[in-house]
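Sample entry (415 residues):
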Amino acid sequence: MLNFTRSRQQRSNRPNSFAGMDFVDPVKKSGVIRKIIFATGLIALCIIIVKTSPTFSSPSPFSLHETGITHVLVTGGAGYIGSHAALRLLKDSYRVTIVDNLSRGNIGAIKVLQDLFPEPGRLQFICADLGDPKAVRKIFSENAFDAVMHFAAVAYVGESTLDPLKYYHNITTNTLLVLEAMAAHKVNTLIYSSTCATYGEPEKMPITEETPQNPINPYGKAKKMAEDIILDFHKKSDMAFMILRYFNVIGSDPDGRLGEAPRPEFREHGRISSACFDAARGITKGLQIRGTDYKTADGTCIRDYVDVTDLVDAHVKALQKAQPGEVGIYNVGTGRGRSVREFVEACKRSTGVSIKVETLPRRPGDYAEVYSDTSKIFRELNWSAKYTDLENSLLVAWKWQKSHYNGYGPIKTSF
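Predicted structure, serialized as tokens:
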């Protein structure tokens, strides 16, 4: 018997397909549309939030030239002299950008300045190496500078005799890259930090700006090379240049906010003031005087010690007097020479500590006597040193040293 009952086929859940086309389930389609609409709305909301944020709608004040505000790039601004210069500029209402690679500077000095001037658009710090061309180009492309104070450099005479290539490379390369960037971005004023070491050991004292330059150590030679680069560039440029050749720097901020805090690894090559204070604080066993057989009254070197407060005042005056297409060269000192022995005795009195002194042979690259004639800078910039009491300058610096046993590190006052 035949069975004519039709078997019932199970309906497939797959959508029907005609001519190779699949028909999408309407429910799934609407879900996809909802997701697209939600994502589009979210993106639109993000765009609105970003566009209405202060950082989007207002470019950095450091990237803009503003009438009545002079924006100064301070290279090496975390160092001893550079940080004091930045402090003075900020006090005088300049806008300041500090660039320092912190190889010898102190981040603690930057923090002090940031705490003193926290207002937006006053101070920014960029950690970068001026020997890196890409970094230098980026800094200048992102900031609107009106002037540059170029302090950044390795700066120890003794070290320069041990590692001359470092000094030639650092001082000349950094200066070249800064000049190239200034020219490319039309930054038209440079205040250059030079040194009396470019004179070497002149036959006649005091030293004037016309004294022949015959440096006797790589530090002085490299600085003279940088000066020559500036002077040659000046011949084909309308920029304003000021070259300040300063003598031996001492002292610290009279209000005790900043001081001299060299890295421990550079103590051997550092300034005599740091060596005296280290001995007075017991960090070192005593003070070493290198060379007691020079042709001077007491056999020790004679130097012109200028207070850092006076020095930065000279930089500000140079900035104010700089003229397009002109170059000014000035000695910055007190016009009076003091022997190393005189300095040590003044340090003993200012610290109240009987410092043990050891005499050693001469240090390579040192010269017997240098002190300045400052009549030109007085005549043309109306500048003269005011903090000329050696013992008082050391006393001011000693107060900072006593309250900063670890430099800009954790405070420790007992020793």
